[in-house]
Design brief:
- The structure is a single chain.
- The protein has two domains: about 180 residues, Up-down Bundle (Growth Hormone, Chain: A); about 220 residues, Growth Hormone, Chain: A (Up-down Bundle), CATH 1.20.1250.20.
- The chain is about 80% helix and about 0% strand.
- The protein is globular, with a radius of gyration of 22 Å.
- GO terms for molecular function: transmembrane transporter activity.
- It is found in: Cell membrane.
Length: about 450
């Protein structure tokens, strides 16, 4: 029971982080009035959030390896509460932008800190499913911002609504202090302090592990399409580009969340039971995303509703699919550098999302503004990311197979088992080992 209590407490912190992340989005009209900001300035808040979030991932991972999940979860919650407290009272646009950056910084350390608790508290066969549940349940924060927060905003005003969010952050901090431990046996011993050169060498070593890069390209190829669709270009594309009503477009975005929940559970169960099929599943998700977009974009006019529904369902699987990247990081990295590895993986999808958002905006602006044809052309920038991610997955998967094959040879020679691959089954020496006819490749690299 204790593992679930620790996980649920960390999950609450992540739910509050998602709430903090999305409050400004649902209060956009009020923010425009409060800060006298144009739509262009308000949209920059989304870009700022992603820039800060992505840019902070590696430093956050290093801090996580140094100080552990508990301290980072508390620090992240405190940063977000401070940023939201500033937003609650300020009417200055520069102060609001700075506060939003602080919120993004706190958000950046929270998710990977909660993820790091999972392998310490759960069996290895449970980790993929609990990881998926973390990502899925965290989206409840978006529901909180869209329903109770928005109701408070409309009924009680800006300051009261934002103070309510701050209070949830304070509750999360108190519960984390009382209930969360980094490991069942207590806190992880602090590693020795490192110089700047040693830190850089550690980061480089983590990146050079093929499993880390496999996770990075996995996250990149699966996550960005649905992120760009949900955070920025989906609603205008469905309404202006495809001619749907705002109500129907909103229903499709709600369907995206439901699909992600169902897909996440199935993916978690599948990868837990068949870890040797993980990269094949990832490649299938990337291919299905590219295929459904190809069908939609090939049409000379607006797509039928059933096809747009299929589009939303298929790309929404990419969200939980990206979580497989963290499983690769866990498999190929020792616990002492797992935070850094998870931060690197988490950069993949958000960097791709940022680049695609900006590139689409440039394309739409260059061809004359919002229209069916401008959106049709702008969405094609996705193919460059899919191509890069697919090549990256194939190359790093091959290198990962080679590393695991070398490890197998060491094990058969009675060498110590490397901690970096602690989650793989340890092969037992045989007098005359023969390859199994179905063993096409090392399990963790597929």
């Amino acid at each position: 029971m204790r593992p679930w209590i620790v996980w649920a407490t960390g999950l609450l912190a992540y739910i509050v982080a998602v709430l903090d992340r999305t409050t400004l989005g649902v209060s956009g009209l009020q923010a425009a009035d409060r800060f006298a900001a144009s739509p262009g300035v308000l949209s920059s808040f989304v870009v700022l959030q992603i820039v800060v979030y992505a840019g902070a991932q590696v430093p956050a991972g290093l801090l996580l390896d140094r100080f552990g999940s508990k301290k980072l979860i508390i620090s992240g919650a405190a940063l977000m509460a401070a940023g939201q407290l500033t937003l609650a009272f300020t009417e200055s646009l520069p102060a609001a932008i700075a506060a939003r950056a602080v919120v993004g910084l706190g958000d950046a350390v929270t998710f990977i800190s909660v993820l790091r608790l999972v392998p310490h508290w759960f069996r290895s066969d449970q980790v993929p499913l609990v990881t998926q549940l973390t990502g899925i349940c965290g989206q409840l924060g978006q529901v909180l911002s869209a329903v109770p927060f928005l109701a408070l905003l409309a009924g009680k005003g800006w300051t009261t609504a934002y103070l309510a969010v701050v209070s949830l952050g304070v509750i999360s901090i108190a519960l984390t202090l009382a209930l969360v431990k980094n490991t069942p046996n207590g806190t992880v011993s602090d590693p020795p302090a490192m110089s700047v050169g040693e830190v850089w060498a550690s980061v480089k070593a983590v990146w050079l592990r093929p499993g880390t890069r496999l996770g990075f390209f996995t996250h990149m190829g699966t996550q960005f399409s649905v992120t760009v669709f949900a955070l920025m270009w989906g609603l205008p594309y469905l309404t202006v580009g495809q001619g749907l009503s705002v109500h129907v477009a909103g229903s499709l975005l709600s369907l995206s969340v439901i699909t992600a929940i169902a897909a996440g559970i199935l993916i978690g169960i599948f990868t837990g039971r068949k870890p040797h099929r993980r990269s094949r599943l990832v490649l299938a998700i990337v291919a299905s995303n590219a295929a459904v977009w190809t069908v939609v974009l090939a049409l000379p006019s607006a797509a039928p509703l059933w096809l747009l529904t299929l589009l939303v369902v298929v790309i929404s699987v990419g969200g939980p699919g990206s979580m497989v990247g963290f499983d690769f990081a866990r498999t190929f990295n020792p616990s002492t550098t797992l935070g850094t590895a998870q931060g690197m993986v988490n950069m993949g999808g958000f960097l791709a999302s940022l680049l695609v958002m900006q590139a689409m905006g440039m394309v739409i602006g260059a061809v004359g503004g919002y229209s069916f044809e401008s959106f049709r052309l702008a969405w094609t920038v996705q193919y460059a990311v899919w191509a890069l991610a697919t090549v990256g997955i194939l190359i790093t998967r091959r290198k990962a197979r080679r590393v695991l094959a070398e490890e197998r040879n060491l094990l058969e020679g009675f060498e110590p088992h490397p901690e970096a691959y602690r989650d793989q089954p340890r092969p037992q020496p045989e007098p005359n080992p023969q390859p199994h006819p179905q063993a096409e490749e090392p399990a963790a690299a597929r």
